[in-house]
UniProtKB/TrEMBL annotation:
Naturally occurring in which organism (per UniProt): Curtobacterium subtropicum
Database matches in InterPro entries: ASHA1/2-like_C, START-like_dom_sf
Protein name, UniProt field: SRPBCC domain-containing protein
Stretches assigned to the Activator of Hsp90 ATPase homologue 1/2-like C-terminal domain: 14-130
Residues in coiled coil: none
Cross-referenced Pfam families: AHSA1
Family: Belongs to the AHA1 family.
Length: 135
């Protein structure tokens, strides 16, 4: 793994279909700040408050292959380039393996800082995704 990308994987006792539903149609229950439809070309937008100011990242869906893969690009206004995100949901025994990867950090002036923050953020979101999928 290079400093340009990150990848995190978690296993779940829930089905691929349940994870896919939580990732897409059920996402508001665990990540309401992210707006996207699992359709190639659909807009992606995440909004949050940081240091008392509203921030956002915008992009579009680049891959939608239910129930196994969802990809998108997104970019904050201050970034000179987009980051590429990809979720893969695979059968693993009676449950599933969920992997999220993100690439493009080397294109950002503070890419290593952003990468570290996003690694923590993805760990948080994966925990919430699995909790939502198992409800």
């Amino acid at each position: 793994m290079t400093d340009d990308s990150l990848s995190l994987s978690v296993t779940s006792g829930t089905s691929v279909a349940a994870v896919w539903f939580a990732l897409t149609d059920g996402r508001d229950s665990w990540w309401p700040e992210l707006s996207l439809k699992p359709e190639v070309g659909a807009a992606v937008r995440e909004t949050w408050t940081e240091d008392g100011r509203e921030r956002s990242a915008d992009g579009h869906v680049t891959e939608a292959a239910p129930p196994n893969a969802l990809g998108f690009v997104w970019q904050q206004a201050a970034w000179p380039a987009s980051l590429h995100v990809r979720f893969v949901v695979e059968q693993a025994g009676s449950g599933s393996l969920v992997t999220v990867s993100e690439a493009g950090f080397a294109q950002l002036p503070d890419g290593s800082v952003v990468r570290s923050a996003h690694e923590d953020g993805w760990a948080f979101h994966l925990t919430n995704l699995l909790a939502a999928a198992s409800r």
